Amino acid sequence: MVAKGKNSKKEEDKITQAVEQILKAPEDEDNLSENAIGVDVGTSKIVVSVKGKGEELFSSQLNAFIAVDYSKFTQGILKQNKISHLKIGDSLIVYGDGAAVFANMLNSETKRPMRKGLLNPKEENAIEIIKAIIDDLVDPTKASDAPLCFSIPGVPKDFETDIIYHETILRRHLNEKGFQSRSINEGLAVVFSELGKENFTGIGISAGGGLCNVCLSYLSIPHISFSIQKGGDYIDNAVSSITGEVSTRVRDIKENEFDLLTKPENDIEDALNIYYDDLIISLVRALKESISQTTKIPKVGAPIPIVLSGGTAKPNGFRDRFEIALKEDGFPLEISEVRMAEDPLNATTKGALIAAMYEG
Amino acid sequence: MFSSLPKKLPPPKNYWQVVEEIAKSIPDPVRKLKFLKRVTRDRSQLSIAPDNDVDIAKTDSIDTVQVELQGEETGQKENKDEHLEQEIAYRKRTSHTWAYRYRHIIISAILVVTVWSAGMLLMSLIGVINTAIIDTAGSDSDKVRYYSVNKGRLQTYNPVATLKEKRDGKKVGANDKLSAYLNKVIWIVEKTSDIEFYSNRLQIITTYMVDNIPRNYYKFPKNSVQLPAKDLSSKNPASDIAGILYHASESDIFDYKPEMTSSIKRYSKALIKYLCKKKSYHYFIDRFGRVYRLVKDEHAAFHGGNSVWADDESIYLNLNHAFMGICFEGRDFETVDKSAAADDDKKGTPNISMMQTSSINEAQIRSGKELTDLLRVKYNISQHNCVPHSLASVNARSLLIGHHLDLSYGFPFNEYELSNKYNEPLPSITEFGFSYDKYFEKIFGAKKWPGISYSEELLKKQAKKKNLPLPEYRNLLNKKFIRFFEWQKEQMKNTKSVKDDQDNIKTAIEITDYSVV
Fold it and tell me: Would the CB atoms of A358 and B16 count as touching at under 8 Å?
């Protein structure tokens, strides 16, 4: 509570004094790690960022694989075409971007080593495949204690599971490679990447392939973070089941042609509209519930922004639909704006990079 | 350095606003982050509470919240230990001051707790005495007794009173969403890739679980001819789980004895694989009481066929999507050999008859209860919507009840702490004027569900109220069903469930004045 009366002046002086002391504190902020690495470990893609000259440099691989029977001939072809692969038992595991190419050739579908933001327990080689993809993207020769921050999902709101196993496996592998690795919540990474101007105060949302991650942060401190188990895959699979179209084709339409603001012209677009609405409503509902239930909401003087990122948030009109859902039945916080991330596909890795640089 | 600052400052008015302003002047995000992290980390050393002047939260509950700026709910591991140490140091320094400042509140709270505890003790004693009295009072056929686990007291449920209320048009059990003991949490204790183990002893085998299509259905308004509104506020189409439909597999069974173990197991396994392929049920309980999840909870399963059920607010016509399907392996009907019967007898004679005893055994009933409890707690399912398939199944073409007859007798409602649905009016009759034929009557004879008679009574009463002859009123209700059913089919025409599972009604619907319904 604010003290009133004759002591007020004295207290304000003390505050001023404290603030001045902060300002006089030595500037160790110059010691920033330029060799830091940010990694977005997403269900559908793994994206790595490093600091280049004046800007961030990004590289990515599909977080997918396809298994084919081993033969010397096939392995030779893969090597010849520089397609990343592993030999596990009697199988050749083609992973990363090459998996999609190979799947097209075989008229088959790729598989995912991750499911709903976490290592896929149903894929026995999931860990080896993830490790291999990360190794392809992050050059271990440059490790030598370089700070590395990788994204992890928020604890799923609607499902009993934990993220400790997933996080530990990734951290252990990266540390073994020589990095100083630590994790960052995916929603918080979006806050770090996109809400710098707002002093990292606001809500960051990453709508990815497996999950939607949410983080409410005040002055860089996360107060609410969670995920919901709906993402791009949920939409793809649902639309695929209903329309009978293969999910790869649905994904292709969703990522390249689909617009949430235009009237649906066919069954697939119609179904995409329905499931996008479902995802958005679930997301907003979960956010409202979390805010209403928490006892740890910070108090600040101004409305806060919401920033949307991730591949699932990419279609035109997602922001508008989200804003409409937000306004339905009121929202427990005052929101200044809902905006898209500058680079929705790279926001998480960029935030992870900022965190890695800060930690270094 | 920060350490040179005074160790204790009074709660400041604008400290964090000043920090924010300074932060805003730092353009580089990494430097800004470094600054903010250091300032917030040093907050505990300064003993500075956050600014309480302005609240971004509009809810009342949040207005009164004391805000901790760091450490407690970060949701990530970074700085966790450091924050914890700081938090402990901070609390040590401030605990004495706080305790003194709020001593009156603390003392009042202690008094309230003491008085409340004494009251609870007294209530428990009264409960124990009541239990003893009721137990010694002997059997009372109208009352079903059950124990409330968390309160340790005997409670009573009177189905006859419920039916009377229902006949008088009162809402039944508006507050009985969950039995008292079900207010307790059931949580997952252990989980592997194949098994989930819950705190109420329930074990679910998930090895065979498959995906289907996400739940997506319409809730029709009760006592109305209006079609569901399709907007965000009306919650239509819905995807929540509204109820549980219990089924029997009506499959072949081996004798339940030790020497048949391997045959029973082999048959169950084959059945599970078949049901998974067909995505028939959400859960399957084999003859040893093992619970299998076949289709994930969030998805529909093709278990309901054409079915009608209703609670106080809504009518459900697509139970594949709206309800969970739990299937007990077993059967309660056997096929009648009609080859020896005279030709005249063959005609119109049912080819099935009730078995002497249901093959569903104690182990299955116990597991079914644990599963029911979990689902009711997890999805807040009303007891009104926990029903055997036979009571909801209809023939949508001929507008007859009892299209499927699984679990049409002997369902252990009492053990499941559910009201006896065999005694309650059937929504298919009261809402849509469904009837039954001679075939149905021949199967059940005198054992016909009492709820049917109640429904007929209710229907007569409603027709009288509307000044309509019963056949005419029934006809209008039938048309309402067809209209609802066709509308739903239209909405769902692209979904696999409808294509695969629902009968095709080709009825020309004339323009009718439904307002009278």
Answer: no
